[in-house]
Amino acid sequence: MDLDARTLMLLVTALFTLSTFSLGLLWRMHRHLPGVAEWTAGLGLLASGTALLYARETIPDILSILFANILTTAGVGVIAIGNQKYAGHPPTWRTVGAVILALFASLTVLYDRPDHFQSRVIIVSLCLGILSMLAAWALARAPRSSPRHAALAQRALAATFAVNASINLARIAAELLWAPVEGRTMWVGMVTTSYFLWTVLVSFTLASGFPLMVTERLRNQLRRKVVDLDAARKTAEAALSEHRNFLSMISHEFRTPLGIISAAGEMIAYNLPPEDHKSANDVARIRRATRRLSNLVEGCLADEWLTTASQSLRAQSLDLKGVLADLASEYDVTLRWQVGGAAQLAADPYLLPIALSCIIDNACKYGQSRPGIAIEARTRLLPTADGHVARHFVIDVHDDGPGILPEERPRVFEKYYRAAYGLHRPGTGLGLFLARRILDLHGGTIEIRDPLPEDAGRARGCIVRMTVPQGGTPVEPADDWKTTRKDATQ
Length: 490
Prior knowledge:
Helices cover 60% and strands 9% of the residues. By secondary structure, the protein is an alpha+beta fold.
């Protein structure tokens, strides 16, 4: 096949068609990018227009001349709109529409007159030149947020559209200097062949340039996100450093008065008469509360320790019965110890008492009476994450308060969230959140349950159930596991 204008037009049609499909796929993946949809539509119009031009002499003139040139010019206009959106400029739909309307009005009169071929070429070239210059001007004004060294494809396409505008103007000049020849068609003449050869180069440039522009935009967005994330990381590190410094200062300020209170309590206890049992009990409660608060200051005042999942526990052997007995005596509530055998478990000696204290303190705060509050502890075999069965301590804290609505129970463990019935009481909404975090770190659980059937005569209340692994080697599921599991849920 000779390299003539008709062959070049067929090649242009194929290139625009392939570019439309490839850019359409790119648009489906990155619909948030401005301009890509307009580029896809513009290339589709160019492919349709060039296909009708190629079919000239085999289809009616209204299709091969009028609609072919309208579609081709509209394709360049829509691409110019896409360039404006991509560059962040307001789209000039009115200008593009006016050019296409003027072309349509002119070709409607001239498309079926063979002796006006030269006039049609001049009008079409003028419209293409105007819209190409509009497309070039949009890309030449690069967005300020885009680094200049990272917009090579954008500048290359801007230059391509500018050269295309110049070539269309040059074609107009050549047509004006070229005397009309009888029987002339669009498929003859060196100027026409050269023009279609340039159109092939333009189609190659558009097919590769638009995807490269999208790649540049995505790369620039990624760079900006990396810079923003790095700035956010530095800000967070600075805030965390200030947070740690503040907590260190608070911890230091707490140690002094706690030390004074503890020393004063020991001095009072030492000087009390042996027969003053009431004062001795009060001083013992003060000393236990002081010791617990000292553990809080020493062990878990830093909030980032609680919120860092990778932080390893300072697990030690802890006497759970002794911890619960001290808390029950401090809060003056009932302890029902139903554990047979050892009461030792592997836990953090600072954190676990804080979790238990938060739950008991809540029960005392919202309960109606001290006799209505009780702590019950027992052991059960419960499943672990790896499918084995391990012995857990199950600790239930009963209260006779207003209870927690079922729809609020999933949220009461959120930070700063407070249930509706507790808004009239002082609090921060951190107790249950801290308790859950501590139990999560121990591999335990916490949940809100309804009162037992035998408690139906009392106020509504609720039961906060906590489970904590006892530690040691897990055992394989036994044959009577279903029975054990049923007992654990009661």
